[in-house]
Amino acid sequence: MKILFLGDVMGRAGRTAIAEGLAQLRKDWRLDFVVVNGENATSGMGLSADHAKLLLEAGADVVTLGDHAFDQKDMLAFIEKEPRIIRPINFSKAAPGAGARVFTAPGGRKVLVAQVLGQVFMKRPFDDPFSALDATLRQYPMGGQVQASLIDIHCEATSEKMATGHFCDGRASIVVGTHTHVPTADAMILPGGTAYLSDAGMCGDYNSVIGMEKTEPLRRFITGMPKARFTPATQPATLSGLYVETDDKTGRATRVEMVRQGGRLAQAGPA
Fold it and tell me: What pTM, to 2 d.p., does this model score?
């Protein structure tokens, strides 16, 4: 199976890049399944129902969220009626929606998508990510219940993301990090056959401070004093993420490539 994961969509620039570019990528790369992290797509803080619809209509099969999952209040109701939106599996037990679901790809193949929040350096303590993932992966083993599985590990620390990758090695097809908006260069296939990347980066304007216009973040770093709200940068965005090919029989990754399309970090994608 050919699977594409795209990192955190950041504001209007990221939404526009998805809307204008994803359908062509699906065609050019003959993609079977696409997952997009959309938790910053609305003004850099959360995802509205309208913007979720835009990402899905543009070609995403599933949209994952993150620690800003419900910053846009209409998502509380929308996620209950839109199964293609996935919030973190270890979010509040009172949270609506689901943190893991199985979806159908072309040919009737089943794909598990789950998202989990890390604990290190996060602003609030979330439930243990490892026990949450363990229960899900036991329920949906590769080569049995599902032909492929993707885990979005949304957290600050690369060490925690790497630990998650090794914890899931051989049990998930893909473990990919999100949240920091900075793409890492460590795409690899782990010994058990899991494709791994510490952070997919963002789909946003990289002439910025992690997707925000530079002036206010610089002021706060230099002076320690806020003056205005953060606003997303608006120049052309780079689509950043991970391309993976998997074996339908085992669920293991057979190829992994970092993706940088358009904007300031452009590079060739899969041949």
Answer: 0.95
